[in-house]
Amino acid sequence: MAEDWKAAEACIARIKVIGDESNRQVDVIGETDGLNLIGIGTDAAVFHYEGTPRYAYKVYSDHAVYKKSIERDVYERLAGIPYFPSLHGEGDNYLVISYEPGPTLQDCLTEGIPVPVQAIRDVEEARRLVRERGLNPRDIHLKNVILQNGRGKVLDVSEYVEGGNDKRWEHLVWAYDKFYGAIEGRRIPEWLLEAVKKSYNKLDQSSLNLEDIAARVNRVLARFK
């Protein structure tokens, strides 16, 4: 495995990712020329370094650094599946994966970029292949699926060792089939997406009724027409 990614090590060492157990987004302390923040979550932040453009660096907070080895193992088990980034190396508190350009599905909605059905099918196929590798494709949502040359690619595999089905992707596919034709190519404001998300989160997940979701979404979309 080539190790040209190590050119970013000194820059990464000058960055501190701060998190806690509250499930809030991490904070990033420090700046380094050429190291750009491209993603942020509750356990880690993701950076792109101009000197090594083929790679992305997922840097974990101290409270979540134990998850690095878990996620590394997941990437190793998914090796060869084209719908995910590939693993290239690791440091003390970070993983090195392939940099995957492209708008997220969230970006597509806010920027009016059409999402072809092929991208949805790609994610469905990715989930099938994940299960074949003995893993559980959880936590797939608008912000961790990208559109790349008309195809779908999944970015975050951190929960694939956990059990249960959060049904997030199934509900997105249902919404795509039921609502997307009416809004395809239109720019959807961030506030509207947040309103839909909040309405979804308020539903009782133990007795979730898709018709309840449809009613809530239709009420929100009516404000956008």
Outline the structure in words.
It is a single chain. The protein has 225 residues and is α+β, with helices and mostly antiparallel strands. The chain folds into two domains: 4-98, Phosphorylase Kinase, domain 1, CATH 3.30.200.20; 105-222, Transferase(Phosphotransferase), domain 1, CATH 1.10.510. Helices cover 36% and strands 18% of the residues. The chain is built from seven helices and nine strands. The chain has helices at residues 9-13, 67-77, 105-111, 117-132, 168-183, 190-202, 210-222; strands at residues 16-18, 27-29, 35-40, 44-49, 55-60, 87-90, 94-98, 145-148, 151-154. The strands form three sheets. Strands 3-4-5-7-6 form a five-stranded antiparallel β-sheet, with helices on one face. Strand 1 and strand 2 form a beta hairpin. It is globular and about 50 Å long. The protein starts with 8 loop residues before the first helix and ends with a helix.
Please write the string of helix (H) and strand (E) elements.
HEEEEEHEEHHEEHHH
The CATH class name of the largest domain reads: Mainly Alpha
CA-based shape: globular
How many β-strand stretches? 9
Q: Looking at CATH, which topology of the largest domain would you report?
A: Transferase(Phosphotransferase), domain 1
What's the arrangement of strands in the largest beta sheet?
A: 3-4-5-7-6
This entry's quaternary arrangement is single chain
**β content, as a range?**
15-25%
Low-confidence stretches: none
Overall pLDDT metric: 91
End-to-end Cα distance: 52 Å
Helix-and-strand structural type? alpha+beta
Instruction: Kindly state the percentage of residues in helix.
Output: 25-40%
The description of the largest β-sheet is: 5 strands, antiparallel
Give the domain tally: 2
The helix tally amounts to 7
Radius of gyration (CA) equals: 18 Å
Q: In CATH terms, what is the architecture of the largest domain?
A: Orthogonal Bundle
